[in-house]
Amino acid sequence: MDTSLFLVQLLNGVQYGLLLFLIASGLTLVFGVMGILNLAHGSMYMIGAYLAYYFTTLTDSFLLAFIISGTIALVIGIIIERCLIIHLYKRDHLDQVLLTVGLIFVFNATQSFVWGNDPLGVEVPEILSGSIKLTDIVEYPVYRLFISLLCLVVAATMYFTINKTRLGMMIRAGESDRAMVENLGVDISKLFTIVFAIGVFLASLAGIVSAPIVSLVPGMGEHVLISCFVVVVIGGLGSIKGAFVAALIVGIADTYASVLLPQISSMSIYLLMALILLVKPQGLFKN
After folding, report:
1. Angle between helices 3-34 and 166-176 (to 10 degrees)
2. What pLDDT does 5 receive?
3. How high does pLDDT run on average in the chain?
4. Which residues in the chain show pLDDT less than 70?
5. Burial readout 186-197 (b: 16 or more C-beta within 10 A, e: otherwise)
6. Where are the domains of the chain?
7. Measured on CA atoms in the order 6, 11, 17, 23, is the torsion positive or negative?
8. Helices (H) and strands (E) in the chain, counts
9. What are the phi and psi torsion angles at 261 (to 5°)?
């Protein structure tokens, strides 16, 4: 592998890893704080991508589609938590699995009914089209750099919110001792609604920004969900910091494996997970 290809694949791996973090952070936040195993999380990635397609086509503006789709995702998250997830807090994980798997079927059927089963695509916004010259012979798409930058901004915002704000303090306290937080007068029900809506928004946001660089196909969320579970397990269940580090590791490893070892690229991240868990059975970081 020459230097230019190495650099491009490194940037691709970082971009993919940061995108995985955007999705996995919502998954690990919901599980860590609420104890909810949301298998429909990948479906929200898919819905975000299709909403971006629909509103970009309708308004001819990716920015408007970005804003509208993100807002709808928040509303969907609130509705799901208030109407369905709220009944699962005192039930075991099997009930959570059954409900969220059911949601996968609902979202997949809705997608097929509204948009059909043919692959769809979204054009890269004109302002973010083109490439930037990294070296004399290496160029890299501006839009992929935009995705990486956006994911870094989201990661920094999450870190600041969780560690430096009152909301973050309540989230961390609710994660550690729900009963204590309730006794202190915090509306834990409202807090859980906020956390779940944020998780859904993050997954949908990843779908929205991915729409111009991937093919929109039925069931596209399931593959992403599996990769995100690998990230969550490697990083440590409930650890946002672990999800960030693990997502970068998985993204870079998967990207290089597809180029250097195409015969085993489909299983590379699972081998990586197995090796890491042999050394760190609880993942890289504890909750």
Report:
1. 70
2. 78
3. 89
4. 1, 175, 286-287
5. bebeebbbbbbb
6. 22-218
7. negative
8. 11, 2
9. -130, 65
